[in-house]
Write a structure and sequence with these properties.
Blueprint: E1 5-16, E2 22-30, E3 34-36, E4 42-44, H1 45-61, E5 67-71, E6 78-83, E7 88-94, E8 103-108, H2 109-129, H3 135-149
Antiparallel strand pairs: 1-2, 2-3, 2-4, 5-6, 6-7, 7-8
Amino acid sequence: MEQHISLNVDLDSLEMNRSKNITGTIYFIIDYHRYFPGEGWYDFLVIILSWWIKSIRGVDISRNGTNYKLGFMAGTPEIFLKKISENQVEMNFRFEDNLDDSFKGRFLLKELKDSVLSVLKKVIRELDRNQWVTEDIDEFKALVLSLERYPFKRGKNK
């Protein structure tokens, strides 16, 4: 049976640092009570979300058994994403320094994609509201726009 998953970004936490990187709080919520990497995890949002778009798009169009990674700037923690059917993915949530804290679960691919896409749109609205412009933000917006124009695959793999 699948577990519930959603992505959370605290829009009020977004900041542009001196290097013009957008940082903020980001984490997954699993089964409404478990947080990964942790409630309040702070990271480089635009950069990692851009990586994640590419990985989730890859999982969506790949064959069953294909693996991708959702990484964080620190290198660890990390999430290994494996397509196990047209509708399901297995996610292995790992803290490399402490494998005892690692866990995995099965999730609906559509729920993961819908949650991520919803967060991406909210982040773009916040970036625009703050009138922040950088090359990373431009690339991020182009990736999100590509998802909106060419939505995630529907139907079956051949």
